[in-house]
Amino acid sequence: MTIPNLITAHQKKVTATKLQKAISTLKQAYRLSFEDAGEPENALKIGAEDYFKTY
Fold first, then answer.
1. Contact 38, 54 (CB under 8 A)
2. Where do the domains of the chain lie?
3. N or C: which end of the chain has fewer CB within 10 A?
4. Measured between alpha carbons, how far is 10 from 4 in angstroms, rounded to an integer?
């Protein structure tokens, strides 16, 4: 392998790790919102602004 290939492989691993952490954080926030506000009912019908204000 050449150095550019090694750098690219490392950058892909770093990006994948950051994405996994972000997904984990979002999942945790989503679960915690249910604990605070309950399961959203008709979430698609209330509109994005009201959804984010509530949940």
1. no
2. 3-54
3. N
4. 10
Of 24, 54, 22, 23, nearest to 39 by C-alpha is 54
Q: Which residue has the tokens 């994005």?
A: 48
Helices (H) and strands (E) in the chain, counts: 2, 0
Q: What amino acid is encoded at 27 in this protein?
A: K
pTM: 0.61
Q: Taking the C-alpha atoms of 11, 13, 15 and 20 in order, what is their torsion angle to the nearest 10 degrees?
A: -170
* Residue 42 zone, left/alpha/beta (φ > 0; ψ -120 to 50; rest): left
Query: What is the C-alpha separation between 2 and 31, in angstroms, rounded?
Result: 44
